[in-house]
Every structure is written in structure tokens, then in C-alpha cells.
Amino acid sequence: MIVVAISGASGPIMGIRLIEELLNSKERVAAIVSQPACQIIEYEILFGKEPFSSLKALLEKRGIAKNIDFLSEYKNNDFFAPMASGSADFEAIVVIPCSMKTLSSIVHGYADSLMTRACDVALKEKRRCIIVPRETPLSIIHTENLHKAALAGIEIVPPVPGFYTRPKSLDDVIDFVVGKVLNLLGRKHNLFESWGK
């Protein structure tokens, strides 16, 4: 199982695209969406026209009903969720996008939410923890926290496009970032061609 956490930063579409790709590959996904992320989804994806109710409903609206039963959703304050415990069987957690507040909580061990607790569990149990930090420009506080994250073994994937793939749309840029995360997870994808192919 892969845990995908969407925190309150711009770009929740990256997390949603990652979930779509994992479900298309019949991966079991446990999703956590913070309350601020729900508001950003309403603004950036639903354009303020309707409230965000659930990922399953949003994926079905986007035409991704395939393998939807492989998706479990958890509230960010649900400390009884499986990934809150080291005895739970999950392979990795990806926080995409990762707000600077969430980054700070992760690197300082302030596990006050399910997503930061799940990251804490991943780190102490020597499992993969990947973040996609979403902020620009970066202050010294942000870069110091990213340095701490790297020292702790967290893999950092800034959402920076690779122009060698010659992106033609915003979807291509999003797919590039999601593809980079899938590469770290060791999952095959067709989101962009590897260099030299």
C-alpha cells in the first residue's frame, strides 16, 4: 500500500494525478487530504463551483472510476487509521504537495496530524518518505528544513519541470513531476519518456 497525503499547498492536482496513476496500476492507495487541501481543491480544481466531498467522487467526476475500490480515504485527524501505527503494512508515504508547515512538522517530529504521524512512522520504521515541497521562493527557514529532511532520509522531489520532455501543456508538467515520484517508488509509467529513448 502507498499512502498519498495532500497537504494545504498549491498544486493538489499533483497528488490527485499520482493517485490516478497508482490506481490505474492496481496499487492499493490510502489517501489523506488535509482540511486546507480541501479548500485548495475547491478553488484550483473545482473552480469554486462546488464543495469538495471526497477523492472518490472527484476521481469519478474526472472519469477515473477504474480500480476505485483500491482507494481508501482517511481524515487528517484520524489517529486510528492504520498508517498511524508502525505495525501497519504500508510501503511508502508521499506528501504531494507538501506545504512548508507540513515540512516543518515532519522534520521536527511534531506529529499532530495523521499525515505527519504517518511520515513519522515511515521514518522510524525505515520506509520510504517522499515529499514534493510547494513554495517559491524559498526562505532560509525552508531550505534549512529541507536540509533536515534530506538528513533524515526523506526523498525530496521539487515540482520543477524538465523541459527536455518538451511539455506542451500544464498536464505535461504535472505528469513529469508525478512520473519522477513514480520513478522513486520503482513503478513503471508512460507519463514521459526517459532521456535517451
SSE map:
Layout: E1 2-6, H1 12-24, E2 29-33, H2 35-44, H3 55-61, E3 71-75, E4 92-98, H4 100-107, H5 114-124, E5 128-133, H6 140-151, E6 155-156, H7 170-184
Parallel strand pairs: 1-2, 1-4, 2-3, 4-5, 5-6
Helix pairs in contact: 1-7, 4-6
Shape by Cα distribution = globular
Strand-and-helix sequence, N→C? EHEHHEEHHEHEH
Uncertain regions spanning at least 5 consecutive residues: none
Q: Main beta sheet, described?
A: 6 strands, parallel
Mean pLDDT: 95
The total number of structural domains is 1
Major beta sheet, strand line-up: 3-2-1-4-5-6
Question: What is the class in the CATH system?
Answer: Alpha Beta
Classify the fold: give the CATH topology: Rossmann fold
- How many DSSP E strands? 6
N-to-C CA distance: 30 Å
The portion of residues assigned to helices is 25-40%
Q: What is the CA-atom radius of gyration, in angstroms?
A: 16 Å
How much strand?
Answer: 15-25%
Tell me the structural class: alpha/beta
CATH architecture: 3-Layer(aba) Sandwich
